[in-house]
Amino acid sequence: MSQHDQPTDDAETGHLVYIDGPESVEFREYEVPSPEPNAVVTEVEQTNVCGSELHVWRGDHPLMDCVLGHEAICRISELGEKVETDSAGQPVEEGDLIAPVYFQTCQHCEFCRRGEFYRCANDYEYAGESPDVWPHFHAPWGTHYYVHSTQNFYKLPEELEETPGVAAAANCALSQVMFGLNETGIEYGDTVVVQGAGGLGLNATAYANERGAETIVIEGVDTRLERAEEFGADHTIDFREYDTVEARAERVRELTDGSGADVAVEVAGVPEAFDEGIELLRTGGRYLEMGNVRPGHDIDFDPGKLVRKSIDVTTAVEYDPWVLYDALEFLANTKDKYPYENLLDAEYPLRDVETALEESENREVTRATLVPQGN
Amino acid sequence: MSQHDQPTDDAETGHLVYIDGPESVEFREYEVPSPEPNAVVTEVEQTNVCGSELHVWRGDHPLMDCVLGHEAICRISELGEKVETDSAGQPVEEGDLIAPVYFQTCQHCEFCRRGEFYRCANDYEYAGESPDVWPHFHAPWGTHYYVHSTQNFYKLPEELEETPGVAAAANCALSQVMFGLNETGIEYGDTVVVQGAGGLGLNATAYANERGAETIVIEGVDTRLERAEEFGADHTIDFREYDTVEARAERVRELTDGSGADVAVEVAGVPEAFDEGIELLRTGGRYLEMGNVRPGHDIDFDPGKLVRKSIDVTTAVEYDPWVLYDALEFLANTKDKYPYENLLDAEYPLRDVETALEESENREVTRATLVPQGN
Amino acid sequence: MSQHDQPTDDAETGHLVYIDGPESVEFREYEVPSPEPNAVVTEVEQTNVCGSELHVWRGDHPLMDCVLGHEAICRISELGEKVETDSAGQPVEEGDLIAPVYFQTCQHCEFCRRGEFYRCANDYEYAGESPDVWPHFHAPWGTHYYVHSTQNFYKLPEELEETPGVAAAANCALSQVMFGLNETGIEYGDTVVVQGAGGLGLNATAYANERGAETIVIEGVDTRLERAEEFGADHTIDFREYDTVEARAERVRELTDGSGADVAVEVAGVPEAFDEGIELLRTGGRYLEMGNVRPGHDIDFDPGKLVRKSIDVTTAVEYDPWVLYDALEFLANTKDKYPYENLLDAEYPLRDVETALEESENREVTRATLVPQGN
Amino acid sequence: MSQHDQPTDDAETGHLVYIDGPESVEFREYEVPSPEPNAVVTEVEQTNVCGSELHVWRGDHPLMDCVLGHEAICRISELGEKVETDSAGQPVEEGDLIAPVYFQTCQHCEFCRRGEFYRCANDYEYAGESPDVWPHFHAPWGTHYYVHSTQNFYKLPEELEETPGVAAAANCALSQVMFGLNETGIEYGDTVVVQGAGGLGLNATAYANERGAETIVIEGVDTRLERAEEFGADHTIDFREYDTVEARAERVRELTDGSGADVAVEVAGVPEAFDEGIELLRTGGRYLEMGNVRPGHDIDFDPGKLVRKSIDVTTAVEYDPWVLYDALEFLANTKDKYPYENLLDAEYPLRDVETALEESENREVTRATLVPQGN
């Protein structure tokens, strides 16, 4: 893996988006690598601007001196030796569209070795590398993307081939909420309250809905409240109207015969939402805390409330990589039911990446996507 | 159940300990009831003074105008119609020693109806009644105790018949920690750190040890540190020596190849211990919060730490009633290995109950037990 | 429970269908009982002729000298003392339509006592009684039905009030397959092969479909193959066309990228189907055996095949009673998607019960239903 | 992995045991390889003659033209690049004793990719290779053994360093039964009946015993019955005395208050034992079928019995590789309690491998071990 390709005169090259400091993005050109055994080289079909790219761009994130991007759909351009199928055993060939897991599962850390892939200790070993290091295309904001032998990837279902944008976020938000909700043991007939209707929240609402849950979404922005309904919310609670924790908890109890929700999902990313979630649950409820991904903000919290109400809390950052296969199936099954395509509201060629970043940062667009091959 | 027995001249009577206000305990005499179908009338063999009785005695607890007691071993004096076995299907007859679950599982609330017995909404329906209400003997501080048809009870294993005191706390502390540790999915080879070496902590240590875990106990009292070792602690951490959260967390990491514990158990009953527990765990660890049973005390808490470390939290108050059967088996198997009898350090006849309460409150004794039949 | 009501001149009476020998059915009239505490007296709205009633009628079943029926929707006519909600905590009052679990969970046997309700040792204690024993109306083929305090029951969701027939089989086939499929750990994206498209098979297909599985149904009758598609089968295999085990197994592999199914469900009720199911599964697959409810027929079977393919087998007769609540929610959610009403193709007043039995036995009707109140 | 070492004059060489046909074993000498990144080269400390080697030797097994052996303890002689810890994160260095998993988990097949490691489709990719293919030392019957980057390995616990023989079978029988029994959900207080007291059976008995189960072992050989007791059997059933299935089932019921066992473990390797196991279980029991590893023998079997008794069946061939870590901890904890060292009754230098095979085949020894470095 440390082997370096020798640049040659007639080698094919590609471009990628490199960031070396806050708001300092540049295009770089590198030779397109040949894949090692079990690896795959791809051309990037579509890749989104997610919140974490904005964090890096602002300098509000430890990653720097690296390639940007993680949500993507790619087209196989060269298969490494031994690669005959995707990670689910489906035959693949050059030209196929695939969704890659955006992090590796190294297979050598103590977590991978005991099957806790979602906790791989070396998940960003490649993604955080400088593009000067072979194979250069470490992240998908570029014309090419290198999928390592330690990354799961899945063929795009036929039903999605014409609309790859529907699946461009499958390897991030959707896989994440599917993994998390599965961990809560979500059952048919559960009532699930979703705190926040951003990308994670909408995907969580659709998935909970398809698993047979009754869904309640709490939000305070009109467009997001509307979208929540489009993504299957049975009820919404506008927190401008229900403007205290107690009012929202009371509203949830009204909607649940006085009990409270079976499952709550924190995807607001606000530390105080954690405490609120406990109030929304029934005795014996299960809580999925996903939104507060970065430590550093204390809240007032009473552990006795957890015990008194017999609450179980589970958490999720990243996911077991095979969940992405299920996520793609989910999209294929439900693409006509939920307006996934509306989640992306602006498309840019790769060269306009700075515009995409600026317009996203200024909230002129909700969710931008880059189309490198249209370049 | 609402039927009242008619007092008759030659009816057998018994005594019980009634509390009607802070430190106001009195003996009362009532006719011994006959059991309804599926119920059992018992004579109390041994019944302990647990922390919750002290809370009630001090007036620091909502229960009042009721009979005291919950930990007990009893002897069957009359079997109700249809009762041929205990709740595990073992044949029973008059004269047998049994351990009753101290709360009922009503079978009619929404929790019982979906098998979540440990959350029965009517758990104290009988235990909190005035003794003036038939069948009077609602709790085990008395000569008799009435085991309702909705209470599980189990025959004392033969191995414990000579030393019923070993099992007198089985229906409280031991069943509680077995239920809770089972909920964490404790596995052979896990490292379990126990925060606090009181009754719950010692039982948790012994059970974790027998399940094949490596155990670490954190305490600050010499006698409890010694006892922790007697109950199977592989390592102890004296928090007078390791006097900061960081020092204790570092010590746990030293004992676990740098990782942190797989499982932590909060049985200190101190709100701040909840936050400390998160620090003691490895990434991907599981936390059992049991000690903070009463809400009302806020701590500073950072929900982002839960997510960053992929921690799952589970909680336990009460237990699925069949766990008591396993608890008795556990004691029968391990009674020669751990000094359960040393947990009780003073024995009183029932008439000396006030002395027992006062000496327990003043910490002249660690754990007192009442022997009503020795009266 | 053994108390007998005293017949009085002006007491209300009802009728029930009593069977005392093969094809010997008679109407009997009894006083309508008053409910004990926690019990409910109902008028029967609709009750089906299921295969087991035909078995009893033919004399091909141990039950005899009893009231017939088990699938039913009933209307509450009198609530026993303490009954304020159904078994899910939903408020109920006289006049509400409910679905009762058709067996009791006694709460006293060793199985109930450890939460394994689906295995209650006394499940038919009441259902098998002679109607001469109070409260007479032990099974729902009658004008009235007595729901004991040990039977879970659930309010019919509002969405089903106009079409109770949709839910008349909820307490049998649908609850049964939901319980069984949950036991297999069915996951989003699994491929499920259903062996047989009778009532259990169609319900299993719909439920698997709603849980996000890809479904394959094997059948050999045209109308059933069509119905399988109406109930959500993604693929059907006609075993007249694929006329060997190997041909059917090969077809399943074709439909699953060569692997075989993740889950198989045996609801054909043919012993040989058990062996075939193993062939249909992928390595590591899970098998739900439900159809062969009565022992007595040996097949040739190679246990080494189970091990070689790492197959897990689970079984289901009856169900945890709270599953019926989920079943009703399932019907409310999907009643416009699957043609449940078509499963019942003939309706009879109670007095025509013999016609209903005969026409069912002669397969003139597929599934008959009785409407006692229309009498 | 395809890179070949260049033979050099002064290269170190080692020997291995090669089999090219029935009873045709020869010594071969190859250059000791250097490890690839993430791989480890070892010297073999001790390696056993297990039943599967006898099958290969007899020609009664598809493997041929390969190196023999799978149970082993090895000493690290050279660490590949990047290897700083074992698969549990414990630091390792040259000279450390380790236990390697005997099969690889390729990380690329569809089973590995979804975390079902115990079903890796390429498990024997290396183990079945000809020794002419680099790195030659594909199995542990040799002076050296090459541990691939896709094989988990674990440092021998300190407590076992002086007696590596205790752990020589950890990577086969013990890991296998621990994995299987964990799959059954074995709980404290379960009664476990073990069908057969060979290596798997004795390890299963010890593990079930340590998990708090009551154990019953069925055997028909005196020495094995004695050994079963040494390995923790609470009861043994001699099938010469209880000489029918019904007699044995009745005896199990006698030992379980009339119920039957909670868990049964088939490790007799006799197809008929599968059917017998169903009879030994209680209603609702769980069956672990492990012994019939090779298909090809039909028995008479009634699937209706499975359903009637609500039996779940699970199976196990191989294991999730991290179970080996737990197995080593188990041995370290219990080595003074169970006489593991007695399971090996003859030790041979590597050059006497044919004697070891012959004496094992003739049952002159029960379990032979080879000590290559003593050569």
Quick recap:
Four copies of one chain form a homotetramer. Chain A has two domains: about 5-170 and about 345-370, Medium-chain alcohol dehydrogenases, catalytic domain (Quinone Oxidoreductase, Chain A, domain 1, Alpha-Beta Complex), CATH 3.90.180.10; about 175-315, NAD(P)-binding Rossmann-like Domain (Rossmann fold, 3-Layer(aba) Sandwich), CATH 3.40.50.720. Helix content of chain A is about 25%, strand content about 25%.
Biggest beta sheet attributes of chain A: 7 strands, mixed
Assembly level:
homotetramer
- What is the percentage of strand-forming residues of chain A? 15-25%
Number of helices of chain A: 10
Unreliable residue runs of chain A:
1-5
CATH topology of the largest domain in chain A: Quinone Oxidoreductase, Chain A, domain 1
H and E order of chain A: EEEHEEEHEEHEHEHEHEHEEHEHEHE
CATH architecture of the largest domain in chain A, please?
Alpha-Beta Complex
Q: What is the averaged pLDDT score of chain A? A: 93
Query: What would the principal axes of the Cα set say about the shape of chain A?
Result: globular
CATH class of the largest domain in chain A: Alpha Beta
CATH level-4 homologous superfamily of the largest domain in chain A: Medium-chain alcohol dehydrogenases, catalytic domain
Greatest interface (CB-CB under 8 A), with counts per chain: A-B, 41 and 41 residues
